[in-house]
Design goal:
four-stranded antiparallel sheet, 12 strands, alpha/beta, 247 residues, 34% helix, single chain, globular, six-stranded mixed sheet, Rossmann fold
């Protein structure tokens, strides 16, 4: 059984249909890449999977580990183990990384004992070290005044600390220099194991040189136009997206 299954999904925003009948199956323990030109609906799909209230699902079903989550609120999906790394992370003035992370972690630990401050601080310090983040950043307000690379590292910090089952990474490579890209990729690879499922949404090949995809899906005009294995990325790099509509 697929870990994530999307059946005939249609979704709109402000009365405009963006997702136009997607069928998609993602397996546990696999890395999946979703690629496509601007405006194809990739980020809309990521938000719909996370349950963003801005988007209206008009038809179809989303199954997560066998459970229908189509009507669930974002917080309920997060507690089930679904995580979205945003393309454009928001600034949260007045809330430090440390306070944000501890609150978020305790919020998803529904049936578990809340983290002690000592255990939390050790886990946060160790994870920040893995991502080459200055320890002083834990006392900075989340994303306020952060560079693009710092924002994306903060997103991967959340991924590693929350340790979800299904991670959606929406253009995590956007705006990163080579060094930051390697650190972010190292963090994602550290997260991966046989129990996880990752969906990487990207325009470009470069992050997929560090995080090797098992499956690649190409999205155009709100639908999955093609799917294949990792070598499909190389063909896209050589020929662009034009040949897909002609195929």
């Amino acid at each position: 059984m697929s870990f994530i299954e999307i059946r005939d999904l249609h979704a709109e925003i402000d009365g405009k249909e963006i997702i136009k009948g997607i069928n998609l199956k993602l397996e546990q323990g696999k890395v999946n890449a979703l690629m496509g030109p601007n405006g194809s609906g990739k980020s809309t799909l990521s938000n719909v999977l996370m349950g963003s209230p801005e988007y209206l699902v008009t038809q179809g079903t989303i199954l997560f580990d066998g459970q229908d989550i189509t009507a669930l609120e974002p917080d309920a999906r997060a507690r089930l183990g679904i995580f979205l790394s945003f393309q454009y992370p928001s600034e949260i003035p007045g809330v430090t990384i440390s306070n944000f992370m501890r609150t978020a972690m305790n919020a998803v630990r529904v049936d578990e004992k809340k983290l002690s401050l000592v255990d939390f601080r050790k886990q946060l310090t160790d994870t920040m070290k893995l991502l080459h983040m200055d320890p002083d950043m834990m006392s900075r307000y989340l994303n306020e005044g952060f560079s693009g690379g710092e924002k994306k590292r903060a997103e991967i910090l959340q991924l590693l600390m929350l340790n979800p089952k299904f991670a959606i990474l929406d253009e995590t490579d956007s705006g990163l220099d080579v060094d930051a890209l390697r650190v972010v990729a190292e963090g994602v690879n550290h997260f991966l194991n046989k129990d996880k499922c990752v969906l990487i949404i990207t325009h470009y090949k470069r992050i997929l040189e560090y995080i090797k995809p098992d499956h690649v899906f190409i999205m155009t005009d709100g639908k999955i136009a093609m799917e294949g294995e990792g070598d499909l990325v190389d063909k896209l790099e050589d020929q662009g997206y034009g040949w897909i509509t002609e195929a």
